[in-house]
Amino acid sequence: xxxxxxxxxxxxxxxxxxxxxxxxxxxxxxxxxxxxxxxxxxxxxxxxxxxxxxxxxxxxxxxxxxxxxxxxxxxxxxxxxxxxxxxxxxxxxxxxxxxxxxxxxxxxxxxxxxxxxxxxxxxxxxxxxxxxxxxxxxxxxxxxxxxxxxxxxxxxxxxxxxxxxxxxxxxxxxxxxxxxxxxxxxxxxxxxxxxxxxxxxxxxxxxxxxxxxxxxxxxxxxxxxxxxxxxxxxxxxxxxxxxxxxxxxxxxxxxxxxxxxxxxxxxxxxxxxxxxxxxxxxxxxxxxxxxxxxxxxxxxxxxxxxxxxxxxxxxxxxxxxxxxxxxxxxxxxxxxxxxxxxxxxxxxxxxxxxxxxxxxxxxxxxxxxxxxxxxxxxxxxxxxxxxxxxxxxxxxxxxxxxxxxxxxxxxxxxxxxxxxxxxxxxxxxxx
Length: 431
Hints:
Elements (H helix, E strand, L loop, with lengths): L12 H41 L7 H24 L1 H25 L2 H24 L9 H18 L4 H11 L7 H19 L4 H23 L13 H31 L4 H16 L2 H10 L2 H21 L4 H29 L5 H52 L11
């Protein structure tokens, strides 16, 4: 196998910075495309699941299938990235989601519920691509701007997440014009958007950022050896040459439990609001504000993670999650407090996920980063699935306020972990 340095042109610090700007732009555009397709699909998936299965009780299976699909795709896509580069891995995940949309359209036509779940499961790989894109954004990022660069890619999700659900109507109109089965039209947008995203990754991420990062580290190591030979002074040990295992565990725990907290409360909020007489307009408005909280301010948290530190920003996120749970717990009978709580829930998730992802990246040795990142995405998606599943049980037993107070335990676990996990002595100073 060729050395990474043979796969990219000669590098300088300026060339690496230019490649990072290009990579960030491509990833942001890919997030917009993927979000447009996923937003329409997730909204219509629950409706289609209820119609084909014949019972509203199965409508939640669509969200479960997407989450499970993201979890199952995390490790394979990470391994593919390590072996072949970011572009093939991201493109493969996007094309898998496009195939899933075609399978779902077929299932709608023949009214086959298991086939529909399989299609939505495959669409979940698109979520895995969204998650891994944030890590691809920091392959070449300087340590001082890792949080910002990662958060900008997360922020780009806002466009698709907000606009995607509004494509259901046009999708149905287009589907009817083409003679497609009822409720299958919006899946066309997933096919188109994910296919375009795959092409964008394959064309735009050349040379591949992961290969450039490897070549740049090789170049730095070669320069260090030459300096040592000329001067007789041993080169300093690179800070990120080995895993910071406590840092990895802390980052994975913070990301996973923050995600579980968010999913558990968010998933049950529409159920709680409608049971207390709220209109669908209020429910939609609440979830929209929650999604805005998740993504719109992510660059702010990325900059904070760079300036005040990853751990401090994760702690800030946990504070916002705790405030959210107090609002929804103590103010569960007030629509205003629930709306405010959902906004803070999104903000807390954003701060913890952005800063936790930056911490995870710099805590893992370069030759193991993609695998560690894949494992984190697997645990994150799995935690969200478990949190969503158990939330319904807790809601039935203890009510919405009880769910909020029980979920507070997850926040407490992260705060304790932050307090007892030792800091890495060395400061990472390389890409």
